[in-house]
Amino acid sequence: MDPADAHSDQVRRFLLHVGVPVLGVMLVVAVIGGIGLHSYRSIRSGALALTHDLLVSQQNYIAQEVGEYLSPASAGTVIARDMLEHGAQAAIQKIFNSYGGSMLRHVPQIHSFYLADADGHFNLIERDPAGHGLETTYLTGEGAGSQFAHQFFDAKSQPLRTESNPAAGYDPRTRPWYTGAAQSGKLYWSAPYLIAQTGQMIITASISYQGADGRNAVFAVNLSMNELTSFLDSLQIGKSGHALIVDQDGHLLAGRHMADVAKQAGGDPAKMTIDPTTYPVLAQAFDVYRVQGYGPHTIRNRKRDFISIAAPLPATAQKWVLLLVAPESDFANFALVDGRQNLMFSLLIVALAALLGALLFRQGRRSERLSQDLERQRAVSGHESQALQAVASYPGLFDPTDDALVLTRGLADQSSARRASVWRIMHDGATLLCVDSYDSHHDAHTGGFELSRTELSAFFDAVAHGDAFSVADAAQDSRTANFFRLFMRSFGSRGLFLAPVLGATGPVGVITLEDAPRAALVSHFTTMIAGMVAARFSAQHYSAVAAAAPELTGEPPDEEARHAFGDGFLVPPGSVAASAGGPSGGATQPVSDGLFPAVAVMVITFSDLVTSPHADPAQVIALVETLATQLQAVAHQCGLYSIKMLGHRLVCVAGCSHTPDPGAVERMANAALAMREASLSILAKADLDPVFRMGIDVGPVFGGMLGRDPAVFNLWGDAIGMAEMMAQGAPEIGTIQVTQDVYQVLRQRFLFRERGRFFVPQAGMTRTYVLAGRR
C-alpha cells in the first residue's frame, strides 16, 4: 500500500468526522451569539432612551415641587412687604402676627417669620414646639439687659402663658438675613444653617422695606430644609436612585443622608459637602456636572454604570443645582433579564447543537474505529497466516532433536513481546525447565533456566489450573510475584501473559510473553503454538543416552565387568579405547603415568538418608545394587573411562589421555543427564525423595599405577576436588552444578542456568552454572 495515500485518507476521515461537527457547532454558536448581542444592544439602547425620558420627567416634577416648596417664601415675602409698607404703624405688629400665624397654620414647610427694624426691634412668630399653637417672641431692652419675651397661644389663638429669658445681647441687625436683604434691596436667600435647639436645618428668605414712619425694616421667612429633604427622600427614582440639591460650590442643601452629612460637619453649613469616600457616586456625579455642565451624563463606578442628570432650579437666588443619580440597571433591568433569557435560550440551543454534534462525532468515530478494527483484524489475520505458514514450513518442527527456535520468535513477533519463553514441566512435576527464551530487543535465544515449586508454589498452581491469564504488573500479583523476582526483574519487564501447554493428562508446560501489548489479540495464535509445543514434548521423551547414541557403540557391560565395579574401570587399567570415544570393540593402547590435560570428572554425592542405620539393610543393599547397576550401564553407554563408588560418593572420569579428548566433556554431560533421570526414577519407585547432588569439572589431572600385587591406577588433581565442591554446593537436590570451564565447552549444545559468582579456594572468584538439559 501507499503510506501517503493512507495518511491523506486518515486526515480526510478525521476532518469529516471531527471538523464538520465542530465547525457546525461553532457556526451555530456564532450566529446565536451575534443575534443575542444585537438584541441586547437594541434593548439596552431603547432602555437608556426611555430612562433618559423618565429622568427628565422626574427632574421636571422635582423642579416644580421645589418651586412650589419655595414659593411661600419668594411670593409670600413680597405680599407681606406690601402689607407692612402700607399698614399703619400701630397696626404693624398685628399685621405681622396675623399674616405669620395664618401662614404657619397652612404652609407646613414654613418654620417661622422674622421682623426687625433699623432701631433693633425684633419680632418672631413660630409654631409652639410643645403643642399645636403659636409662639410669639419680642426683644425688649437693649444691650446686656435685653430679654426675649415669649407668649404662647393655643390653636384658637387664645393666650396660654408668657415666659422670658435673657437675649444675651442679641442684635438682629448683625444677622446675615438682615444685612443681606438691607444691602441687596431685593429678595435675599441665606445659606442653610442649623438651629441647635431644634435640630432644624433652616434657609431664610428676607426682603427689606421702608415703613410709613420712614424707618427701614426687614421681613424674613424661614423655611425648614428638613421638609424638603423628606420630600426628596420620598421620591422613588428607580430602585436605589438619589435626588439631592446642592449649590454650585458643592454644599449639600437637601437630599438623602442629610442628617449624616450635617452630623459629620458638626452643624456647620460650610462643611456640609458630599464626602467622596462615603458617597463616591454622588461626588463623581457632581464632579461631572462641574466639568460638563447641565444635562444627562453616564458615569461608571466599581464596574457599574450610573445615569445622572444635573438641572438648575431657577426659583432660587443662589443658583441651586438638582442632581439625580440612579444605577442604569434600575431602569434597564428588564433588558438584562430579557438578555439573560435570550442567553438561556441561546445556551439551550447551543447545548442541543453540541449534543447533536457530539452524537454525530461519536457515530463517526465509532464507524471509524470499527473500520480500523476490521482493518486491524484483517492485518492481524494476514500476519498470523504468514507466521503460521512460516512455522508450519519449518522442516524440523516436530523433530525432538531440533530446537525449533522459530516458535518463540513467531510468538514474540505476533504479540510484540519483549521476551517469549517456552517452559516444560519436568517428570517430577516440581520443576519448570526453560526450553527456549527469545529476547526480541537483542534478537537472542537463551534457555536452560530451572524454576522449582518450592520457590514458586503459587505460580505452579496457576499453571496447573490450565487457564491462560494476563497481569499488567507481575510484581503485584500473588500468582506471579516470585516468578517476576526470579526471572523477570533482571530483564526489566513488568507485564506477563501465560498460556498453558496442554498434554493428554493436563498441563505439560507453559508459554510466557513479557510486556506483550498485543497478547490478547493473538491469543488464538498462541493457543496454536502451544498445541505444536505439546506435540513436540510428547515426541521428545528426552533421554541423554539416546542423544549420545550417534557417538557411542558397544554393548552393556558383561557380568565380569559388573563384578569389577569396585575397581571402577570400564577398560583395562592402564589403557584407553583406541578411538577415545568409548568401548568400540577395538584394540586398546597402553597408558603411561603422567599428566592428562583435559579430564572430565563428575562427582555424585548421596545423603545419609539412603544408608540410614534405621533402614532395613536388605532393602538398602538392594536399592544400592539397583542404582549401581543402572549407573554403571549409563557410564558404559556414554563411553566413560572410569566409574567408582567411594562411600557416599560416586566418581566418574572421561577423557583420560595424554592428548585432549574433545568429546569427553560432552560424554560426561550426557552421562550426568542420564544418571540424574535414572536416579530420580529409581528413588521415586522406592518412595524416596531425591537425595543426591552432582558436580562436573574439566581440567588437568595426574595419573599412574601405584603399589604392587595388585598395582592400582589412581588419579589426583584440582579437577577432582572442584567437581566434588560443585556437587556439595549444588543449589538443590537432584541438580547438576558445573564450573565455568564446562559451561564454555558445552554452552552451544546444552541448556544452562547461571548461579552467580563464588569464591573458590586456590581458584579465586569464579562463576558456576546449573546444567538443565540438551538443546
Automatic annotation (TrEMBL):
Annotated localization: Cell membrane
Keywords, A to Z, come to:
Cell membrane, Membrane, Transmembrane, Transmembrane helix
Which Gene3D superfamilies does the UniProt record give? Nucleotide cyclase, PAS domain
Give a GO biological-process term.
Answer: cyclic nucleotide biosynthetic process
Which GO molecular function entries does the Swiss-Prot or TrEMBL record give?
A: adenylate cyclase activity
Q: Which domain of life is it from?
A: Bacteria
- Xref: SMART domains: CYCc
Looking at the UniProt entry, the stretches that span the membrane are 14-37, 306-323, 343-361, 495-513
InterPro entries reported in the protein's UniProt record: A/G_cyclase (IPR001054), dCache_1 (IPR033479), Nucleotide_cyclase (IPR029787), Sensor-like_sf (IPR029151)
Annotated CDD domains = CHD, PDC1_MCP_like
A Pfam family it matches: Guanylate_cyc
Principal cellular location given in the protein's record = membrane
Q: Which residues form the Guanylate cyclase domain?
A: 603-727
Whether Cell membrane counts among this entry's keywords is yes
UniProt GO cellular component terms: plasma membrane
What this protein is called in its record is Putative adenylate cyclase
